Amino acid sequence: MKHEFEVAMTCEGCSGAVARVLNKLGDVKFEIDLPKKLVWIESDKDMEVLLETLKKCGKEVKYNGTK
Questions:
Q1: Taking the mean position of all CA atoms in its chain, how far away is CA 5?
Q2: Closest CA to 54 of 11, 32, 14, 21
Q3: CATH code for the domain in which residue 60 is found
Q4: Which CA distances in Å does 20 have to 23, 50, 65, 66, 67?
Q5: Residue 1 has what pLDDT?
Q6: Is residue 59 a contact partner of residue 8, using CB atoms and an 8 Å limit?
Q7: Where would I find the beta strands (DSSP E) of 1-67?
Q8: Contact in structure between 62 and 5 (CB atoms under 8 Å)
Q9: Does the predicted model carry a pTM greater than 0.90?
Q10: Which pLDDT score, from 0 to 100, does residue 50 have?
Q11: Is Hydrolase one of the keywords UniProt gives this record (predicted)?
Q12: Buried (b) or exposed (e) across 46-67, using 16+ Cβ within 10 A?
């Protein structure tokens, strides 16, 4: 299942931070679209887990649903 999140990323540093916290989760595939401020995550993990993980970046995160 692919989840779409909107993350208030403004630079490469932000997207790098997002990539780091997601890689720590393990067993997730993700794509980051910095210009659109979107992150797509493919994972069996619960959406809440993914949301909390993204929030660790200190950015505003909004869940857009599954794609």
A1: 6
A2: 21
A3: 3.30.70.100
A4: 5, 13, 22, 22, 23
A5: 84
A6: yes
A7: 2-7, 29-33, 38-42, 61-66
A8: yes
A9: yes
A10: 97
A11: no
A12: eeeebeebbeebebebeeeeee
Structural domains counted in the chain: 1
Distance between alpha carbon 52 and the CA centroid of its chain, in Å? Answer: 10
| pLDDT tens track for 16-59 | 999 999 999 999 999 999 999 999 999 999 999 999 999 999 99
Residue 54, both tokens: 């993204």
**Parent domain of 51:** 2-66
What gap in Å lies between CA 66 and CA 16, rounded to an integer? Answer: 23
CA distance 61 to 15: 13
Say which amino acid occupies 61: V
Given a cut of 90, whether residue 67 has pLDDT beyond it is no
| Alpha-carbon separation of residue 14 from 4, 17, 55, 66 (angstroms) | 17, 5, 12, 23
